[in-house]
Amino acid sequence: MPLKNLNQEQYNSATSKASKNLTIASAGTGKTSTIVGRIAHLLQNNIPPNQILLLTFTNKASSEMISRVANLFGDEIASQIVSGTFHSVSYKLMKSLGMQVALKRPNELKTLFKSLYEKRIFSNNGETTPYDSNYLYDIYSLFLNSSDGEDFETWIANKNIAHRSYAVIYQDLFDEFDKLKEEHGYVNFDDLLLNMLEIQKTNNFNFYEILVDEYQDTNPLQGKLLDGFKSKNLFCVGDYDQSIYAFNGSDIGIISSFHDRYLGSEIHTLTKNYRSTKPILDLANKVINFNERIYDKKLEVVRTNIMHHPMLLQFDELYGQYEYIAENIQKSSTPHSDIAVIYRNNSSADGIEANLRDLGIKSKRKGGHSFFDSKEIKLVLDMLILLTNPNDMMAFIHVVEYGKNIGKSVAKDIFDALILLGDGDLYKGLTHPNDEKTPYRSTKTTNIQLGLFDDFVEMGSLAKFKNSGFSESFLGNQFLKHPKLTIESGEFLYQFYNLFKELKRMSNPANLIDHVKKSKLFVSAIDSLATQRAKQKDGTIHEGIKTTAIFKANRKVETLKQLSHKHTNIKNFINAMVLGGGELSEGEGVNLLSIHASKGLEFKEVYVIDLMDGRFPNRTLMSKGGSLEEERRLFYVAVTRAKDILYLSYAKYDRIKKQDFVYSPFLVESGLVKKEDKSDNEK
Asked: Rounded to whole angstroms, how far apart are CA atoms 636 and 129?
């Protein structure tokens, strides 16, 4: 009986007869077991597996749950359940309808957006400067995920009245961006959900029941998607105390209003905590109880073994904190893979990582820059993308801009030229150009209100490449007439030309990656990257650092190659990497995690560091729309990752920035610090 291992509360939730169910599952109370139990209950009642939709916050969580279902019912049944994140499920359903989706990661499209942004002139409106391109991109994503029907101009003006004068330019900029994305078939994560909303209007997917994990982090756009499936049965599991994604538009009001929105729904509560010891849970609850209670709950600690009480570590100096923690980890008997250092700000990880490395302790970092955001990995993937779609402008720009004197704007000029010379086909424009076409022309546009100005490229000459050693077919291509191209940039483009032709004859992902890695283009690009990473403040190149950087870059590509072995189709491999990339962390050893990255994980020994007011809670983010309540929920999530051993640390001074710190209010709320007594247990 698959449900026999559930406790009574979990069993009641998993077997509920109500059509709409919400289960409040605090940290460590067995929400995964409850969701798997609900799926088992549905299958035992002869609900076809392909009529069950499981939505999770990460693809890893989805895989874990489906694996547990497979252990009970077999792979054939489990594999029929539609599961994954809102984004990956939308992608799968679009593919099932025969739709072609060219999915792009946010950082890739930010490059394209920035190229459009830089062509705008923002007239000075006095004291307020316009948002930079990255922040504007992110805030538009927040608008798409959290808005309630208003247009962007109205939304941005309501959010910050000082930017009302820029609203027209912002809106026109995104209109241009959306048009360019549509022209090239690009889709980002927000587009997946928006497109899915439109598809739901004409397609009925006939899901008998939808199960939603981490329901507290659902945003309004995802809420609309849930309603759009028109399923009669909904089973949601979440915890309002762990709602920590307001920056992505998540709305705690969605979970708090569940009972009112779904008349006749049942609210279940899981009260038995199996993860943490009583002292750890007591500390977490002391702090989180300062937040308003949405649903009543009182946790019961199942574990009775108590060997450690939470310990406060106080330091006179910031980097002394990092050094001590690294040394403490070195002395610990806990396996390094079961130790986590958790931080509110990504910069906090640098000091810990450096000190661990100095002691020869391996670590893996997740929650800052993704493995798939590293330039060397993006370079390889972009070459593979060009094989599946030679007209992919972003992939082309990302590869070609590594050439000397080729930046984003020149790379885009070359792209446009090759498309023209190839009569709409970049590869044809590169290998068999139409000589009757003129590749570089004026694109004059003027509109002062929208911040637009003229853009013009003038034809150059091919004479500078006369003794370059290029093949005649390449040397005769008119795209080389761009006036900013030099002999060095021409040589890089020749490497690209040769590599592109060679890869066209291959199809296996692992072989393609290996070939890219050994190519002159890749070696040249990695040498350039390594040189940048090894440059010292005085402008000299540290050869030791450069050698290490080259080694690490090649090692990353080897990791990518290993990931590719289970794929034989290049398109499937690329999309798998884009959809799941953010969930991978590289390496082994001590876990260095942002709080958001630690969500759903647990460790025997946990350090929550840099608990200074301003850093945690992060007052800067609070001033941009965050709240002390959300920061408190972040603290709760961080603390409840610990099973046995918990350290909380803060420092009084940063000697580099010459900055004084005050302890976090959460340390006062937890009872570890009294306002009048800050010196106990100093290190």
From this structure: 36
Give the number of residues written for the chain: 683
C-beta atoms surrounding 475 within 10 Å: 15
Instruction: Choose among 116, 94, 282, 117: nearest CA to 191.
Output: 94
Say how far apart CA 224 and CA 197 lie, in whole Å: 8
415: left (phi over 0), alpha (psi -120 to 50) or beta: alpha
At 680, is the pLDDT very low, low, confident or very high (cuts 50, 70, 90)?
very low
Instruction: Record the tokens describing residue 261, joined without a space.
Output: 């929105």
Burial class of residue 675 (count of CB atoms within 10 Å of its CB; 0-12, 13-18, 19+): exposed
664: exposed, middle or buried (Cβ count in 10 Å: 0-12, 13-18, 19+): buried
Angular region, 232: left φ>0, alpha ψ -120 to 50, beta rest: alpha
Radius of gyration of the chain (CA): 27
Count CA atoms within 13 Å of residue 312 on its CB side. 21
Token pair for residue 590?
A: 């001590």
- Residue 287 CB neighbour total at 10 angstroms: 23
Place of tokens 């937890």: 670
Question: Average model confidence (pLDDT) for the chain?
Answer: 86
Cα distance between residue 173 and residue 186, in whole Å = 16
* CA–CA gap between residue 103 and residue 216 (Å, rounded): 27
Look at the block and give the residue holding tokens 């290993």.
Answer: 562
Angle value at C-alpha 595, between 591 and 600, nearest 5 degrees: 80
Among 37, 106, 107, which Cα is nearest to 68's?
37
Residue of 303, 233, 296, 232 lying closest to 268 (CA atoms):
296
Of the candidates 168, 113, 102, 167, the one whose C-alpha atom is nearest the C-alpha of residue 138 is: 113
Phi and psi at 193, nearest 5°, equal -75, -40
- Nearest CA to 258 out of 26, 18, 10 is that of 18
| pLDDT tens digits along 339-395 | 999 999 887 887 888 788 778 888 888 755 556 667 888 899 999 999 988 888 888
| Range list of H helices, 133-219 | 133-146, 152-159, 167-184, 189-200
Least confident of 8-17, 292-301, 314-323: 292-301
pTM score of the predicted model:
0.74
The 3-state DSSP composition of the chain as helix, strand, coil percent (nearest 5) reads 50, 15, 35
SS3 52: strand
CA distance 210 to 106: 28
Q: How far apart are CA 417 and CA 422, in angstroms?
A: 8
Distances (CA, A) of 652 to 318, 354, 470, 663: 7, 21, 62, 8
Q: How far apart are CA 383 and CA 578, in angstroms?
A: 14
